[in-house]
C-alpha cells in the first residue's frame, strides 16, 4: 500500500507541475477547465499522500487548493449552461 500512496504523490506532483508549466508557457489559461482539472486531481493526490504521512499542514493546504479548483470548475460549468 505504501508504494501505491507514493505513486499517487508522484502523479500529483507531475500534474501540478504540468499545470504550472503549461500556464507559464501560455499553453493554458489560468481560468481554463484543463488547468483547474489538473490542479484538482493533483491536489486530491497530494491530500492522499500527505495525509497518509501525517503532514497535516500540507494536507489542509491541498484540501483548500482542491476546493478552490472545484468551485472554479462549478463556475465555469455554470457559465456554459443555458
From TrEMBL:
One Pfam family from the record: CBU_0592
Keyword Transmembrane helix: yes
Classification via InterPro entries: CBU_0592-like
Alphabetical keyword list: Membrane, Transmembrane, Transmembrane helix
Segments passing through the bilayer: 7-28, 59-78
Domain CBU-0592-like: 7-80
Source organism superkingdom: Bacteria
NCBIfam families given in the database record: CBU_0592_membra
Protein name per UniProt: CBU-0592-like domain-containing protein
Amino acid at each position: 500500500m505504501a508504494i501505491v500512496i507514493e505513486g499517487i504523490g508522484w502523479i500529483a506532483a507531475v500534474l501540478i507541475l504540468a499545470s504550472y508549466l503549461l500556464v507559464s508557457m501560455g499553453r493554458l489559461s489560468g481560468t481554463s477547465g484543463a488547468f483547474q482539472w489538473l490542479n484538482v486531481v493533483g491536489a486530491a493526490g497530494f491530500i492522499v499522500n500527505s495525509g497518509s504521512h501525517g503532514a497535516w499542514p500540507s494536507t489542509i493546504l491541498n484540501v483548500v487548493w482542491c476546493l478552490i479548483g472545484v468551485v472554479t470548475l462549478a463556475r465555469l460549468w455554470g457559465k456554459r449552461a443555458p
